[in-house]
Amino acid sequence: MMQTDTSQGKTEEELKEDTDGEPILSVKNLQTVFYTDRETIRAVDGISFDVKQGETVGIVGESGSGKSVTARSLMGLIESPGKILSGSSIQFDGKELTEYTDKQYQEIRGSGLGMVFQDPQQSMNPVYTVGNQIMEALRFNQGLRGEEAREEAVNLLESVAIPDASRRLNEYPHEFSGGMRQRAVIAMMLACDPDFLICDEPTTALDVTIQAQILDLLGELQEERGLSILFITHDMGVIAEIADRVNVMYAGEIVETAPVEELFANPRHPYTQGLLDAIPGERSGNERLRTIEGDVPTPNEPATYCRFAPRCPEAFDACDQVHPEHVQVGESDEHTAACLLYPSDKDEESRVAHHRSLGADSTTESDTV
Ligand SMILES: Nc1ncnc2c1ncn2[C@@H]1O[C@H](COP(=O)(O)OP(=O)(O)OP(=O)(O)O)[C@@H](O)[C@H]1O
Ligand code: NI
């Protein structure tokens, strides 16, 4: 008994040490735009966040808030007419990815950095068997061939709890159910032995039970392999289950960031409060949040005001004129929100002046289009 307790305590301590470490991913002032005939869409508009070794960081927000563009930016998958603006920084494992060539990106996607999409079709090729694709990944990334590759592929399918693995290796993706296919995609990612996994709504298309199983699986793999995970979802319930820290995204910007317990106990940004109020009692994977009146605007001009103001129940005049900057809103500097209501110990006039001057400081280093 005593021994179990001690060893469990130690594991927790080790875990904590891990997450206290240096970030493996550090994103600073990321700006990704799409040039269309009519306008410049600022899909990701100056976001900054870190992910430390072994932790799961969530990005949550409604449809159109820029979550997938963030993921694709990190993976080097932004194509014309899209562009990551200069002044953006993506540091991964000490390397500046915004300076990477396509070839360098291909290599890192094959080894350090993996991605699981909402739709497994995007990761799996329908014309090859599941086994073929996993073995190809093993050949490409670990140099395994023939019987050796086959054995390792069986191991990987077993590690994601796909029953009857050696038979299923010979099946095509369409012969797998949605949940099993997503497991197979995860197995394929593991064939690349990644340190970092980006999951873009990997459970959204699945029913609640299967969704919970996949989340458990990701948690187990993370513990076994020390994976760091960036987990993207529109679902606050999923965030509660999987994330250590959370970034709330709205119209291309992060509007609040906090450790997960803190965010749920003490949400500060009116948008976060709205999202939390919108959690349905009976969660269904396909449901988009709809209970905050209105939609996310397309960010097509510089944010010189609060983009949430038109939908915000607490907006006041200055919200249309002054861009809110991140200020500490909780006990620690781990909890910040970009909202003119804070810091709440100041009166309205000095809060607005505070944000105005923070904004003036930051424009010198940010990019102009
Ligand atoms: N290739 C593109 N060309 C033009 N605009 C784009 C392109 N890709 C994304 N956008 C725009 O960027 C914004 C953010 O889109 P994004 O897909 O990142 O949203 P999201 O938060 O992932 O939403 P969802 O929950 O629906 O997946 C949207 O306004 C979208 O229309
Ligand atoms: Ni998306």
TrEMBL record:
Membrane protein topology class: Peripheral membrane protein
InterPro entries: AAA+_ATPase, ABC_Ni/Peptide_Import, ABC_transporter-like_ATP-bd, ABC_transporter-like_CS, Oligopep_ABC_C, P-loop_NTPase
A GO term, aspect molecular function: ATP binding
E.C. designation(s): 7.2.2.11
KW Membrane (keyword) present: yes
Domain ABC transporter: 25-276
Segments of skewed composition (Polar residues): 360-369
Known catalytic reactions: Ni(2+)(out) + ATP + H2O = Ni(2+)(in) + ADP + phosphate + H(+)
Enzyme class per UniProt: translocase
Subunit structure: The complex is composed of two ATP-binding proteins (NikD and NikE), two transmembrane proteins (NikB and NikC) and a solute-binding protein (NikA).
Record protein name field: Nickel import system ATP-binding protein NikD
